[in-house]
């Protein structure tokens, strides 16, 4: 009953808020995309198009309230790449024999990409970035909580049935993408209860990945940990937190889990890997053969399962690799745009975390770390599963794109950079936490609005104006 009440209440609230404050409608849409209420509570929530009602009202509100800005800054390149990928899939859908499958692919990707870009145009403040981060974490964390409840209740639902139409591997990779966000929200949140909740969800996600027995998920979690090590603040306390997380994951992984993971790399005397691992390698070789034969357009969206039998596989066999199947179905052009979308976001976010990168709000670095870590795990683990319509990687990338957009907002960028270089010197930022600018003039916190003209009155920032009045006065004194 709780599931039905939550679903109907969130649908009504999301639709209503979507008309007048479309960003909140977008948050409701994101939560449904990850949580999947009809799959989470199938016994009480009937299948219906709840998300359609929310996104429809959100788009109406987006058009008429004018709470958006198309000044996308450094996020413009990822936006062009993912838009190009959707357009390429649309063009490719006209050619294949199985038209229903091709257009289903375009529809599924469009239902993620279009709202994601609309959401990006509505992000105008740090407060909104934090709201999006907590929405993603709450939805993915609750899913992990339910999977743990089933597991400790005696049935490993995640391993044997998966979740929301995803098998255990796809569900595990969704958890991998969310774990970096959970860890860094725990590290950087100001309030103790927020830290506790974030670390609690991180532990649930890590445990769920382990008992899913997904080797791709386990590898992705290791890579996410390596990504966290790269961008984590260079302080003993944060290193200790990361070390504790590694130790906890090692303890939770029992002998059966470790043995399962090691079969990924072990070869038999014949030179063959374990049957499941070897079949993936053989599938990838066949996908590469398709790319060589049809390098531009591929065999068409969602068409690889239809031609798998030509290579000796059962009809309908997936390629078990997002990147290999994308290349086979949409050619090298489609693969370059799709993989390039994630790699571009990763590269630009890594630059934000650099020691000498100027940020107007320290939370830009914090959120860049979350998105970077989650996407590192996803990009690697997606090599082992075909899951182009998995939502959480897109929204994790959106968090990073929001940082890139706000941190290149023309209103403050030039003034901030000039002030820090002239007043404090280019080498005074320790690269791990707030700069001396922040320490002296205060943390430009939740309410920082890079585009206040597109922000509702409740979200306007008094602190923003105060900081820059102070900045101007300081520059005058220096002059």
What does this protein look like?
- This protein has 21 helices and no strands.
- The chain is globular, with a radius of gyration of 23 Å.
- Helix 9 packs parallel to helix 18 and helix 19 packs across helix 21.
- The C terminus is likely disordered.
- Helix content is 70%, strand content 0%.
- It folds into 2 domains: 67 residues; 406 residues, no CATH class.
- The longest helix is centred in the C-terminal third of the chain and has 31 residues.
- 47% of the residues are buried.
- The N and C termini lie far apart (66 Å).
- With 479 residues, it is an all-alpha fold.
Inertia-based shape: globular
How far do the termini sit from each other? 66 Å
Order of helices and strands: HHHHHHHHHHHHHHHHHHHHH
Q: How many strand elements?
A: 0
The total tally of domains equals: 2
- Strand percentage lies at under 5%
